[in-house]
Write a structure and sequence with these properties.
Number of strands: 2
Number of domains: 2
Distance between the termini: 31 Å
Strand order of the largest sheet: 1-2
Helix content: 55-70%
Number of helices: 24
Shape: globular
Radius of gyration: 23 Å
Order of helices and strands: HHHHHHHHHHHHHHHEEHHHHHHHHH
């Protein structure tokens, strides 16, 4: 059996550029993480330059597409070296499918090939190349590209292969009537704004951004005259970018302190398993899971800021007349941390992936849409056993939480005091339930997940099963249906 690599060698291992090795050495941060952050910071500067010097008023759409794609391809090669070939192979294969397949089958072929290739890469990365030791690797961008490929294929199928009356309002709005050119296709999939950390966006929104119609299109959608504007405004993203950069700095601080002080391995050490009381274990589980969040807050908020800096991500005007730049936001931190229901929590975590799952699976599944959506989400994340522990537990908790809420909540609405008490109890219950559910996702392997759940007596599994068996589960409303399918967990940064 091969010897385990030393910690020092792991800290500076990367498949990409070693140019920033001195920075990695100085800060004591793994080189793959340094490369990731460096590319995102450079992308932020490039985004400002892109918006100012390559604006649609000054530059043709073809040039904007070309520069966005060239920068993106360079970033991928810088971060992942020759492993980036996996992205390029998948992109080229799926373009061949896109231009040769019939409109009735393009979505099926694209979905099978993209998900199949991603799954093979997930398996080979772990079991053949032993590649799972890196915190950032080519599978992250490959997951984003897979989302975009399948989203585009389904929207082309909607626009060219289905009748208008068979489409939902959202499918009709996003349906694509003309297949993209190769340049448009490459730009959409590999642009520097989202190729490293996402998020996935619709093809129509992206092309509108490149062509300079994005902001005006969103203003017309929400009828800007009713918001009190006498002429079409031209909002600036600078304020939104600065706000999001402040969030990334705070998240980075907590990542460098809290995350390192409470690693997930704490949940299976001797003290936690053999000596701590049950209440102490619950509290410690919550702290450790909280400590695992800042890296996601950092990566997703920075990615959002990069898109906004380029002028992409405008979503309209809120009820107070403020311009909103959250079209591509992947999370709402305040709503996550104050969530008083499982539903509220999962609606505000990894939002763009939830939209993708709804677009390609939940709305189109011929039967068992919830189960199929959970399975797709698990497959998309990877093949680590911990992912499947989390998603199976998530199904139970989601059903139990819905049953409890629909059965009991109305008893606590008669007075403000009762409602406040209910909110406090449900907040604590939600946060602990989420921590319990997602712990295996972070642990990855079977043994530590089982060790953790044994130490907690599988209490949430048992409670959820009892609730489902005892309390009636009322039929889902449309909103509940949309929420249940959106359950998914942390993806890699």
């Amino acid at each position: 059996m091969a010897a385990e690599p030393s910690p020092s060698s792991l800290a500076y291992r990367t498949t990409g550029s070693t140019l920033l090795h001195p920075v990695s050495d100085l800060l004591g941060i793994p080189l793959d993480q340094v490369n990731f952050v460096a590319c995102q910071l450079f992308a932020l500067l490039a985004a400002f330059w892109f918006r100012i010097y390559l604006s649609p008023e000054k530059t043709s759409s073809a040039i904007r597409h070309a520069f966005a794609a060239i920068f993106g391809i360079y970033f991928v090669i810088f971060c992942f070296g020759w492993y980036s070939i996996h992205l390029f192979v998948l992109v080229l294969i799926c373009y061949g499918i896109l231009i040769t397949s019939s409109t009735h089958n393009v979505h099926r072929y694209s979905f099978v090939v993209a998900m199949g290739y991603l799954t093979v890469c997930h398996i080979s990365r772990i079991y053949i190349f032993h590649y799972g030791i890196l915190t950032t690797d080519f599978s992250g961008p490959l997951m984003i590209v897979t989302q975009k490929i399948t989203t585009l294929a389904f929207q082309i199928h909607d626009g060219l292969g289905r009748k208008t009356e068979d489409l939902t309002p959202e499918q009709l709005r996003l349906a694509i009537k003309v297949r993209p050119s190769f340049l448009e296709y490459i730009s959409y999939l590999l642009n520097f704004l989202s190729v490293i950390a996402g998020p996935c966006s619709s093809y129509k929104d992206y092309v509108a951004f490149i062509e300079g119609r994005h902001i005006h299109m969103k203003l017309l959608e929400m009828n800007w005259k009713q918001k009190g504007y006498s002429s079409l405004p031209n909002p600036s993203p600078t304020g939104a970018v600065m706000h999001k950069l402040c969030i990334t700095l705070v998240s980075l601080f907590f990542f460098l302190t809290l995350t390192k002080a409470y690693p997930v391995t704490c949940l299976v050490d001797d003290w936690f398993v053999n000596e701590a009381s049950f209440l102490s274990r619950l509290c410690y589980l919550y702290i450790v899971m909280q400590a695992s969040k800042p890296k996601y807050y950092f990566a997703w908020t920075l990615a959002d800021a990069v898109n906004n800096a380029a002028g992409y991500g405008f979503s309209g005007v809120d009820k107070n007349g403020n311009f909103c730049w959250n079209l591509l936001s992947n999370l709402n931190i305040w709503k996550i941390e104050t969530a008083t229901s499982f539903k509220m929590y999962i609606e505000n975590w990894n939002i763009q992936t939830a939209i993708w799952l709804k677009c390609v699976c939940y709305e189109r599944a011929p039967c068992f849409p919830t189960a199929l959506t959970f399975i797709l989400s698990a497959l998309w994340h990877g093949v680590y056993p911990g992912y499947y522990f989390t998603f199976l537990t998530g199904i139970l908790v989601t059903l139990a939480a819905r049953a409890m809420r629909t059965t009991c909540r109305h008893f606590f609405l008669s007075s403000e005091t009762l409602k406040t008490a209910y909110d406090v109890i449900t907040w604590a219950s939600t946060q602990l339930a989420v921590s319990y559910t997602v712990a295996p996702f972070v642990m990855l392997a079977v043994e530590p997940a089982l060790t953790l759940y044994k130490s907690l007596y599988f209490h949430l599994h048992i409670i959820s099963l009892l609730i489902i068996l005892i309390l009636p589960i009322k039929p889902q409303t449309t909103r509940q249906s949309q929420t249940l399918n959106s359950f998914h967990n942390k993806e890699k940064t």
